[in-house]
Amino acid sequence: MINRGDWLTPHYNGQYRFEKPILYYWLIALGYRVVGVTELMARLPSAFAGLLLVLTTFACARRWYDQATGMLAGAITATSFGYIAVARQALPDLTLACFITISVWSALMGMAAPHPTPPQHGRRWWLALSGVALAGGFLTKGPVGLLLPALVVGPLALWQCVRPPVPVTKPLGQRLVALAGDVSLLALICFILSAPWFAAMTQTHGTGYLDRFFVGENLQRFATDRYNAPRPAWYYLPVLLGGLLPWSPLMLLWWRSLTRVFRGVQRVNVTVFSLALWALTPLLFYSLSIGKQPRYILPVLPPLAVLLARPLLETLKQLPQSTPRPSRDILLASGGLLSAGILLLLSIFIDRAKILLPHIPMFTVQATAWLIGFSAIGVGLISVSSRQRLIPASLVIAAVISTLGVHGTLLSRVQTEPVQQMANLVRSASLDPIPYGRYRVFVRNLLYYVGRSHVDLASRDQVKAFLNSTEPVLCILSEDDLAWARSEGVNMYELGRVSYLDTGGLTLRTLLFPDPQKDLLTVILVSNQRPTEGSGLDGTLGAYAQDSR
Q1: Of 102, 86, 106, 98, whose CA–CA distance to 49 is shortest?
Q2: Which of 14, 49, 249, 369 gives a 20 to 30 Å CA spacing to 59?
Q3: What is the DSSP string of 9-46?
Q4: Tell me, what's the pLDDT at 213?
Q5: What's the CA dihedral at 294, 297, 302, 306 to 10 degrees?
Q6: Which of the residues in the chain have pLDDT under 70?
Q7: Measured on CA atoms in the order 22, 55, 72, 268, is the torsion positive or negative?
Q8: Which H or E element spans position 496?
Q9: Nearest Cα to 510, choosing from 361, 349, 359?
């Protein structure tokens, strides 16, 4: 957008990019325009959305319960591993989750607030906020930004209209008309804010754009395996438990309430029911889809944080202040010990992974592992002691230590990142930029660092044809694909290679039995022509060049 001056149509790698709407790109481009093209500006919208999500969760829990619940729910959201991991990525998913959370909460406040009901004159402001958030979600990632809030709020609003929680004098017909008016207000605000860009895109690119986006990029992504390999229906359950770590083991505290409800001793109040429906709807929706990605269920975590904060506080309040032999809550102790055990395993995994991180000082990796391990031991000791009231604080401290340690050693290293090393090799490979292709490596981020378009190679046959070109070209591929090309008789000259741990492809086997020979991914830059003096392929790169014929 900055280079082309085109703020209407997204482009990627020199081609139209119709996969997502425009808002997230606008936010990043605005940061580029104001500050400059930096990684910080690319990641800032997602990070800001994470902060706003924390504040929204806090506000919702405080309004529906109390200040303490709001503080704890906000702390759970802010320190859950799933949110922290996504908040540093230049992806629209956390921004979408933020808009969905704001739209659901504000729509419930305007049409189906469980407690307390806002005054009549304030309802319109809540509905207006919801309409703005709906438009934001629609412009961030498409119809899902409208559908998920509708699936959550619609049944609750209709049920409260038919069965109001307090006696009302208005007949059902008038209540339904009022509800239709509220929905119309939401739709109108959303339409006014979001329709102009879609209309401009349709006018510029024709109705084929609408078919490509709404059918191809949304319906087919949900209902077919065109974009993602099929995954089982239970796929999101471990993702959910992992995303809510280190807090998810405390879900054991739900056991008492669930058993009372099933025995008929306790009824589910409207606030808990609203939060449960809010959490379960996105989970069921995405579980039914064919194309599943872990980050899709981010909208589930805010209501779960509230549902977790409330019973945790109630359990802590029931602990005796002082007795000759202080009693301990068994479920609280069990959940705390589970959290401590998982954190301890994380520290062990990091310590064992040091052989896969040759460019990071061993002391840094070991110190990170020890700090996480000590924080885990602290959580465990507090969980079985008479100071169980400190469990929330200990989990917050452990989560901060763990996430800072992992990001400092694995994700935000001081050293040059592997993709940057490869980009430097590409830029140095020729005095005059020549075409370069990429096959199955550095899928999205290489383009950013090289600063010019590449050829996306979709198969090994395309790699072979690309390297057999009569014109000079460069190609970036993995060690396995390089070996295959050699076996096919392709003439190549190696210019440089980068080996690194692909953190996005970590498996349990890698964590338990790390092996540099198996687990380090080697990416190689090759040319189809021998480096010659003065071409830019000599000198530093020429020292690496090997005739692979």
Answers
A1: 98
A2: 249
A3: S-EETTEE--SS-SHHHHHHHHHHHHT-S-HHHHHHHH
A4: 86
A5: -90
A6: 115-121, 165-169, 321-327, 412-414, 431, 532-549
A7: negative
A8: strand 493-501
A9: 349
